[in-house]
């Protein structure tokens, strides 16, 4: 089908304004997750955490996390959360964000979860024009797209982190596709290193193995906000970090 275009976004993190325009000029939108904004490392006034605890406490939490002092960060957070019904407060805030962002999705949208998302809430907000896939496939414009959401376990303990085995099973379930869409990248140093945070994020070895084995035309992902390398070829596959949509406000376009 000539003249088909898919716009792809990832790491939306509360950028509803630009999300509402992300489908312009495209036949479909693909979203690779991380809709929720818990805190903004660039703007400490935005997100669930600063709304609850203020900018000064957010400054301190970011300082600890950036220094990879995760145990101290958890202890600091625990003191702030003491006496607060954490689950209720977070769910209320996430629901507000989801209501706004799912309403901004164009039709059709194909979406999978990021590591900071809460999958159990998505069915309440995904309208008929939004197809949610995780370990599943969809034909879009005559090409087969496979979707695997979430992230692998880390000291950050974000909401949707799963075991390497569970993640590998979802990759296996997707099988051979033209375009393999995931939230996290394959486990390649240049693709998982964040040049601003100055750390390696977790990539998937199972995803890398699948790229070598099944040779999709494209492997699309996000998760690493400022990668050392945004695009590289692995065998027959063009691997692309589609960008940090929260800051850029621009989708990445795939045309054929």
Question: What would you note in describing this structure?
Answer:
- The structure is a single chain.
- The chain has 256 residues and is an alpha/beta fold.
- It has a single domain (5-37, 105-255), classed as 4-Layer Sandwich (Purple Acid Phosphatase, chain A, domain 2).
- Helix content is 34%, strand content 21%.
- The protein is built from nine helices and 15 strands.
- It has helices at 16-19, 48-66, 70-81, 86-104, 122-125, 164-174, 189-192, 205-214, 245-248, and strands at 5-9, 28-31, 109-111, 130-132, 136-140, 143-148, 151-152, 161-162, 179-182, 193-194, 199-200, 218-221, 231-234, 237-241, 252-255.
- The strands form four sheets. Strands 5-6-9-12-14-13 form a six-stranded mixed beta sheet, covered by helices on one side. Strands 4-3-2-1-15 form a five-stranded mixed beta sheet, with no helix packed on it.
- A hairpin with a 2-residue loop joins strand 13 (231-234) and strand 14 (237-241).
- Helix 2 (48-66) packs antiparallel against helix 3 and helix 6 packs parallel to helix 8 (205-214).
- The termini are close together.
């Amino acid at each position: 089908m000539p003249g088909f275009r898919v716009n792809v976004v990832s790491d939306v993190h509360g950028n509803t304004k630009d999300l509402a325009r992300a489908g312009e000029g495209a036949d479909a939108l693909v979203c690779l997750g991380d809709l929720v904004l818990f805190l903004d490392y660039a703007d400490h006034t935005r997100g669930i955490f600063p709304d609850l605890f203020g900018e000064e406490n957010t400054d301190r939490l970011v300082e600890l996390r950036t220094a990879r002092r995760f145990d101290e960060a958890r202890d600091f957070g625990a003191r702030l959360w003491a006496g607060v019904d954490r689950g209720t407060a977070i769910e209320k805030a996430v629901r507000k964000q989801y209501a706004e962002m799912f309403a901004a999705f164009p039709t059709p949208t194909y979406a999978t979860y990021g590591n900071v998302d809460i999958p159990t809430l998505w069915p309440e907000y995904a309208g008929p024009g939004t197809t949610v896939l995780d370990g599943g496939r969809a034909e879009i414009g005559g090409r087969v797209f496979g979707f695997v959401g979430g992230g692998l376990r880390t000291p950050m303990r974000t909401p949707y982190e799963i075991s390497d085995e569970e993640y590998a099973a979802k990759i296996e379930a997707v099988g051979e596709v033209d375009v393999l869409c995931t939230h996290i990248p394959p486990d390649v140093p240049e693709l998982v290193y964040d040049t601003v945070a100055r750390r390696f994020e977790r990539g998937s070895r199972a995803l890398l193995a699948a790229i070598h084995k099944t040779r999709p035309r494209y492997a699309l992902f996000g998760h690493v906000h400022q990668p050392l390398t945004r695009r590289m070829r692995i065998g027959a596959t063009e691997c692309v970090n589609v960008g940090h949509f929260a800051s850029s406000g621009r989708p990445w376009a795939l045309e054929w």
